[in-house]
Write a structure and sequence with these properties.
This protein is of the alpha+beta class. Helix content is about 40%, strand content about 25%. Helix 2 packs antiparallel against helix 9.
Amino acid sequence: MIEITESFDREKWENFVSSHPEGNIFQTCAMADVYRSTKNYEPISLAALEKESGEILAVLQAVIIRDAPGLVGSISSRSIINGGPLFVEGKKGLEALEKLLSYYEKFLNNRAIYTQVRNLWDTENSKKNLNSLGYEYEPHLNYLIKLDRPEKEIWGDIHKPRRKGINRAEKVGIEVRKIKNRDEIKDCYKIIEETYKNVRLPLADISLLESAYDRLSDSGNIDFYLAILEGDVVGSRVVLKYKGLVHDWYAGSKQEINYVNEAVVWHMLSEYAGKEKVFDFGGAGHPDKPYGVREFKKRFGGEEVNFGRYEKIHDRSKKELLNLGFKAYKKLNLARVL
């Protein structure tokens, strides 16, 4: 018999994620701790257990995100499941998956307008199960770069125009380094915030990066990078690391300075070459919709994959209101820029 619980043994959960073929940082207890200390973030952690033995059959780590507290938060809340749910192979695992998601929706109790499942691997084996529960699939591209090889091979795969950009960044004097202390998160965040405003996208509070630094730095699961030109910070990037997978999490650069992103990405690739397994570019949008940085990511020569996403709307009227609000937000910020 399968039992769903929010009270579980933390060590058993972490071991399950660590030993799972698709185990990733977003499904760890450590990431739940990060979310718990982030403003307007609320983690949900649920496990499916074999009642008799207590064996974990599946886990689900989600986070409810609100753009603000109060009324604004209630009409902007969404639940994101990154890299999950994780479940054991076979019929028992699929049964646990269905029970886990059914319980999750009751547990959610109208706290989110919709749920989005962001896949980090192919989910063909569970697609029917997710569809039967009302989760609709849509394509979503990404680029993966193999890191477990010499730096020279990685360089050889990068398209010529991108290599030129990297060389020009070096010539103009852009230097890339990791942050030296917690205080430099402010510099990192400031650049990311500026970038998100330019493209008119909402951004998590700085407490997300501060909490991630506090909880993931000692274990080596996170790196913060700064790009410096003539003493000024002109770019930043934050990556998460777990079991050889380097996930490109947040990035930003000054619009008026060229080749910053080329410099930072190449610095990271060369640093991780031969030490980690895969660099995950963090998504490249729907293949049939414009996505500004897709070409940038593509020209680093990684493998194009289409693992897609699933979405289930829990409150359709609020979802329509959220979409209208997002369009208004983008127009308002565009007006400010102009």
